[in-house]
Write a structure and sequence with these properties.
Mean pLDDT: 93
Structural class: alpha+beta
Helix content: 25-40%
Low-confidence stretches: none
Distance between the termini: 39 Å
Number of strands: 8
Shape: globular
Radius of gyration: 17 Å
Strand content: 35-45%
Length: 155
C-alpha cells in the first residue's frame, strides 16, 4: 500500500463514524498533490444533496480527529465537499445506483479509434462495464482500460 493509499484509508476510517452519525454517504476520500500543494478531500452526499453547513459539520469534526491522530507527514489542505455533477463511479454502490443511467467513459487505450464513449449503464462486475450506446449497440469495457467513468450530464 502506498503512503497516499494509507492516508486515504486511515482518513476514511476516521470520517465514517461522523458520516454515519449525520446520515450522509461517504463517496470518496482522496489525497492528491496539485500545484505543489497537498489536498486531503472527502466527498460526501445525501438524498437531496449536500449543503455548505453539512460540509462544515464534517470538516470541523474530521479536522479535530486528524489533528489528534497526526498521521500525515506533509502539510495539506482539508476539503469536504459534494462530489458534484461529474461524480466518478468508483464503488460498488455507485455502479448499483447508476444502473440504467447515462454515463461517460474515458479509456486509457483506444477502442475503435476513440477514447471517449457515452451510453446507458447496463451491467458491471469486477472485470468489466457494459453500456448501451445511442445506436442501441452494447459495448463492453474491461475495467483495467477505464480511466474514468461518471454520470453524464447535459447543459
Amino acid at each position: 500500500m502506498t503512503k497516499r493509499e494509507s492516508y486515504e484509508q486511515k482518513t476514511e476510517e476516521l470520517v465514517l463514524p461522523i458520516i454515519n452519525a449525520n446520515h450522509f454517504e461517504l463517496v470518496d476520500v482522496e489525497y492528491v498533490k496539485e500545484g505543489g500543494t497537498w489536498y486531503l478531500r472527502a466527498y460526501i452526499d445525501k438524498p437531496g444533496g449536500i449543503t455548505v453547513d453539512d460540509c462544515e459539520i464534517v470538516n470541523r469534526a474530521l479536522s479535530d480527529l486528524l489533528d489528534e491522530k497526526d498521521f500525515i507527514d506533509e502539510s495539506y489542505i482539508l476539503e469536504v465537499s459534494s462530489p458534484g455533477l461529474g461524480r466518478p463511479l468508483k464503488k460498488e454502490r455507485d455502479f448499483e445506483r447508476s444502473l440504467g443511467q447515462e454515463v461517460e467513459i474515458r479509456t486509457y487505450r483506444m477502442v475503435d479509434r476513440q477514447k471517449e464513449f457515452r451510453g446507458v449503464l447496463k451491467a458491471y462486475d469486477k472485470d468489466a462495464v457494459t453500456i448501451v450506446t445511442e445506436e442501441e449497440e452494447e459495448q463492453i469495457f474491461p475495467r483495467d482500460n477505464i480511466a474514468l467513468i461518471r454520470l453524464a450530464f447535459d447543459f
